[in-house]
Amino acid sequence: MVSAVGSPAQESPAPTPESTPERVPLHRWLGVAAVAMGTFAMVTSEALPVGLLTSVGGALDVSEGTAGLMVTVPGLVASATAPLLPVAIGRLDRRVVLLGLITLMVGANLMSAFAPNFPLLLASRFLVGIAIGGFWALAAGIAVRMVPERFIPRATAIAFGGATAANVLGVPAGTLIGELTDWRVAFGVLGGLGLVVVVALLLLLPPLPATEPVRVRTLAEQFRNPVVRAGVLVTFLLVSGHYTAFTFVSPILQDVSGMDQALVGPSLLAFGVAGIIGNFVAGALGGHDIRKALITIAGLLAAVLVLMALVGGTVVTGLGLLIVWGLAFGGIPVGVQTWILRAAPESAEAATALNTSMFNLAIALGALFGGLVADNLALRAVLWVGAALAGLAAAAVWATRSTRSEAEV
Q1: What are the backbone dihedrals phi and psi of residue 212, each rounded to the nearest 5 degrees, phi first?
Q2: Which of 98, 127, 146, 172 could form a cystine bridge with 269, CB 3.0-4.6 A?
Q3: Which residues contact 394 (CB under 8 A, 6 or more apart)?
């Protein structure tokens, strides 16, 4: 198992983070930035349908709940891929694996762009799920191998900043492209972006050989750590709660808040900007008391979803609450990941794989359950369900005591 920060005897011939404890060479930060570009592309690929549900549903003659399967399918596949791929790839260089996964994402999005019917579109989303699960399982562990231990929260924030940046630029831009042209064009442009990421990884990421392959036993051992167990549960509750509601944010803004469809893209841009801020705020707070930060994040998410259901009936209140929603959700990935890495510093890749699996399972089930609620109850009900799950997450963090390794950070 590769540790979170690597080892001089195990790393590639390039200088190791431990050899430069006071200063991180620029090429190391550029490598972290390349990983962030990859997370940007992957999250954009996974979440792009959120802003295109209405367009895709109308073009392919399916309901909005059925169109939500474009989020559910890759989430389910990614949840299985995340723990299995690190085991399957053995000692393969992680840089080579990331390049292969990004290339798969490129092909899958081009397939989406030319899909003549909804079943073939879902098949392309299946391939996207393979790429997402594998990439996320490796990305966080790779980022922290690039820097000394005291820079890990910053490197993690940058790597996950690519995810929140996807909400700022990727999803809103894809939504806007789909509105101005066609939803197929949005998928095609995303495929082109993936090619740019391939070049960036080739140029900026150094060789990252695995010194010890991840085994199934290694994954199972992570559940002995109470913080890893709690972190995986909290990830499921927060992410499923978010996606139960957020998968349907476009119809929520239009039907609940009375927003014109042309304003949905700019509104998602505001959501994403808030998410970027939340990501780096959580990264900064991670250097102090990460448990308190997570409780605050979960409580804020629960509160904003309740308020959206109660007082989000105007464009002004809907937009304002959406921005706070973005601030809360932006802190979730880096917050939970930092909590887990601190509790399992010697098993970063295995613990991250489990958390990634649960993250994507939560996306899939959240989108699926949200679709059932929206189709069979009421659109506003998805907000109440999301709020309840976020409240449970806050309680789970509060009830979990820190491990010794976490307390020593």
Answers
A1: -145, 120
A2: 172
A3: 294, 295, 298, 299, 302
Residue 14, domain member (yes or no): no
Domain that holds residue 358: 25-210+223-408
CATH of the domain at 329: 1.20.1250.20
Residue 104 belongs to some domain of the structure: yes
298 domain residue, yes or no? yes
**pLDDT tens-digit map of 14-58:** 434 444 456 767 777 888 888 888 888 888 888 888 778 878 888
How many domains does the chain contain in total?
A: 1
Each residue's pLDDT tens digit, 190-215: 999 999 989 988 888 878 776 566 66
Round to whole Å and give the CA distance between 74 and 303: 29
**Whole-number Cα distances in Å, 89 to 5, 92, 136, 355, 357:** 20, 6, 14, 18, 16
Q: Count the Cβ atoms, other than its own, within 10 Å of residue 216.
A: 11
- pTM greater than the 0.90 cutoff: no
Q: Is residue 15 part of a domain?
A: no
